[in-house]
Design goal:
By secondary structure, the protein is α+β, with helices and mostly antiparallel strands. It contains 15 helices and 26 strands. A 6-stranded antiparallel beta sheet has the order 2-1-6-5-4-3. Helix 14 packs antiparallel against helix 15. The termini are far apart.
């Protein structure tokens, strides 16, 4: 049979009112002219073959009529019905049906169609006839695919915006110990199979969080032992860290990397660990894929690359497995993390610099003969600048002590400079003139001539030793809050001898006098201790009186700690406090309910070792801790280690645990203490062995470095084996 676009060779049904020849000719012409691809088929038990096609089907399929002559539509590879068994059943039953069909054109393209098949012909014919009309689905499928792509793009965009918003929320706490781990866990849950951050600071190290207070010169113990070159052509990771590459790179952790490169270190240390979450391609937690290719992205800061974000795509596949939108999200997260790290470190450096400058301007607490003195200073937690609060305790003579506390308005370098000048002037004049009023008169004159544009207030006092354990207090105030005098559970504000702020006085300054009895307490303070936004200054002074009157501690550190713990737990300004107590011979007969905690800030110098020992002895006496020999030796070793191997100020805290004394010493070196067997050929090296023998001890990381603690067992030193000889 020859397939062509002419009239079919079998009779057609004709309308009753038209001649048969004319009707057949019209119907054949109509089938040939229609724009709907149409074909006539012959169906038998053996095959379903093409008998005739119109011009529209020729254009749609790309085949000339003679190329499809007698083509079996159910078996030929150029025609792919969706369900061949269903089509055979429909042909055998002689019922119309519709089914998806794919036509393969000569150029290799595929045309998606819907075939509408119906039986035609005259009963009694030996061959069944079928007409097929094809509906081209290409435009519909293209429109659907485009719509699906738009919907998917919008979905990815919404997911990306939501993810970035959640990352931004986490970045508010990026300085927390697990801040970076939380962001990596979020990326693992949402877009990749695994993620981890590695910071580059004197070596590359896996980072769960920041260590902002660690100076750049102190390498972490878990980081690289030496700095590696960042310009090697075979080290793409090093080139990322050196700023020579900006785009993400792929690294196969299972492949051998060049020795002495960042890529080698990352191949050894990166990737999910035994406890890390790994998400498979289906979004479920799974074992890490055998494909160990990872994608490494830089974490850029303002001036240099701060570290790396390393991710493993779900199911493996390396960089090719990440679509453009995912890479864009990861790059945006890395940039935001880098900016946040820069901000945290910059703020921390400024804050530490300001606090160090402030503390350098304040005198360290010294030993004063005849009275118990405790000093405290804390900068505002919300302010990274230096302030004007200050204090001074000065041994003027064998029987005279000078105490001053003041405040220069402002929280900037100018206020700190004014404070430093004022403190030096007051200290100098107090040596020559021990009466506070005349000292302030001289200070007024000089302060005005210095043209310092800041108002300043202060309380200046001198304590002179009297017979029978008494002391005489003389004081003068220059616009400052009154000193609090506590005696036998009653607190009184010393409001006499008031006057204008420093630099504004033009006449004589008055001096008031109070005789202090054994057990009396003086509290000097700045307004940060009592002033709050939710209460007036008058109410704050009333609260201070109430708290001070109820304190039962028998030493100045105990009184100061109690005041600070109750009044300065959330200060809104700088706080400076000086507590002076006249010792009472009957102290050991009285009970105490004061919190059993003491703390001191010591300079990083050898003299602090003796001061720490003395502080422990005094505290044990105040707490009725018998035989403090063990504690004295332990604190000596801990503070000595902090002075020798740390930097910055040394913080000493003592706690009464009920069954022993807990000593905590903090310094800025995050490197843990190590127990050694000493140093052959020279003295030393046994410090931590001594601590280990006399106490239970340990250490922990802190925001400022590390804290080494020791819980000392009460009693004398343990007996040596030689003691029995």
């Amino acid at each position: 049979m020859v397939v062509n676009s002419h009239a079919p060779e079998w009779p057609l049904a004709t309308p009753s009112d038209a001649p048969a020849g004319v009707a057949a000719e019209l119907l054949a012409e109509a089938l040939r002219a229609t724009l709907v691809p149409t074909a006539l088929l012959t169906a038998s038990a053996e095959a379903v073959r093409v008998a005739w096609v119109n011009d529209a089907l020729v254009a749609a399929s790309g085949y000339a009529p003679n190329r499809v002559a007698a083509l079996d539509v159910l078996t030929d590879r150029r025609v792919r019905p969706a369900d061949v068994p269903a089509a055979r059943a429909a042909f055998a039953a002689g019922v119309p049906f519709a089914q998806r069909v794919v036509l393969r054109r000569p150029d290799g393209a595929y045309v998606q169609c819907m075939a509408h098949v119906s039986p035609v012909g005259v009963a009694g014919l030996g061959v069944g006839a079928w007409v097929v009309a094809l509906q081209d689905l290409t435009s519909q499928l293209t429109e659907h695919a485009e719509h699906t792509a738009v919907v998917e793009a919008e979905r990815r965009e919404r997911r990306s915006v939501t993810l970035i918003a959640r990352v931004s929320d986490l970045l508010m706490d990026v300085d927390e110990p697990q801040g970076l781990r939380e962001i990596a866990s979020l990326l693992t849950a949402e877009v990749v199979g695994w993620a981890g951050f590695y910071l580059h600071d004197r070596g590359l190290w896996a980072a769960d969080g920041l260590d902002p207070r660690r100076p750049g010169g102190a390498p972490r113990p878990d980081a690289q032992s030496r700095r590696l070159p960042t310009s090697g052509p075979r080290d793409p990771v090093g080139r990322l860290l050196g700023g020579r590459l900006d785009d993400a790179v792929e690294l196969d952790l299972a492949a051998a990397q060049p020795d002495g490169t960042y890529a080698e270190w990352l191949a050894t240390h990166a990737g999910p660990g035994p406890g890390d979450a790994v998400v498979g391609r289906d979004g479920r937690r799974a074992v890490g894929p055998p494909d160990r290719r990872v994608v490494v992205l830089p974490v850029p800061g303002r001036r240099r690359t701060l570290g790396l974000l390393v991710v493993q795509p779900r199911g493996g596949g390396g960089l090719a497995a990440l679509d453009a939108s995912t890479v864009q999200v990861l790059e945006l997260v890395a940039r935001r993390v880098g900016l946040s790290i820069d901000n945290v470190r910059l703020y921390d450096r400024e804050h530490r610099l300001a606090e160090t400058l402030q503390r350098a301007m304040l005198p360290e607490q010294g030993e004063v003969d005849g009275v118990d003195v405790w000093t405290y200073y804390s900068p505002s937690a919300d302010d990274a600048q230096v302030g004007g609060d200050w204090y001074d305790v000065q041994q003027i003579g064998p029987d005279t002590v000078g105490v001053v506390v003041g405040d220069v308005v402002g929280h900037d370098v100018e206020a700190a400079a004014a404070m430093g000048q004022l403190r030096s002037v007051v200290r100098s004049y107090s040596v020559d003139i021990t009466t506070p009023g005349p000292v302030l008169e001289r200070v007024d004159q000089l302060f005005g001539s210095l043209r310092i544009p800041r108002a300043a207030s202060l309380v200046l006092s001198t304590l002179d030793r009297e017979p029978e354990g008494r002391w005489s207090l003389r004081y003068a105030r220059a616009g400052h809050l009154p000193v609090l005098h506590v005696r036998d559970g009653h607190a009184t504000q010393l409001r006499d001898a008031g006057g204008p702020l420093i630099g504004f006085g033009s006449g004589e300054r008055a001096t008031a006098q109070v005789l202090l009895e054994p057990g009396d307490v003086l509290v000097y303070y700045t307004d940060g201790l009592v002033e709050r936004r939710d209460r007036s200054l008058r109410d704050g002074l009333t609260v201070l009186e109430t708290v001070a009157a109820g304190i039962t501690a028998r030493d100045a550190p105990g009184i100061g700690e109690d005041l600070v713990s109750r009044l300065a737990d959330h200060p809104e300004d700088d706080v400076a406090v000086v507590v002076v107590r006249v010792p009472d011979p009957d102290d050991h007969l009285r009970g105490t309910t004061s919190p059993r905690r003491r703390r001191w800030t010591l300079p990083s110098e050898p003299a602090s070792i003796a001061r720490a020992r003395h502080a422990v002895v005094r505290t044990c006496e105040a707490w009725d801790v018998a035989d403090p020999s063990n504690a004295e030796l332990v604190v000596s070793e801990l503070v000595a280690n902090a002075v020798l191997h740390g930097w910055g100020h040394v913080a000493l805290q003592l706690h009464d645990t009920g069954d022993g004394l807990r000593i905590e010493v903090e310094d800025s070196n995050p490197t843990p203490p190590v127990t050694t067997d000493g140093h052959p050929g020279r003295v030393g090296g046994f410090g931590m062995q001594i601590v280990e023998r006399l106490s239970d001890w340990g250490w922990r990381q802190s925001r400022g470095g590390k804290v080494v603690w020791a819980k000392v067992r009460p009693g004398a030193l343990p007996r040596s084996a030689y003691d029995d000889d």
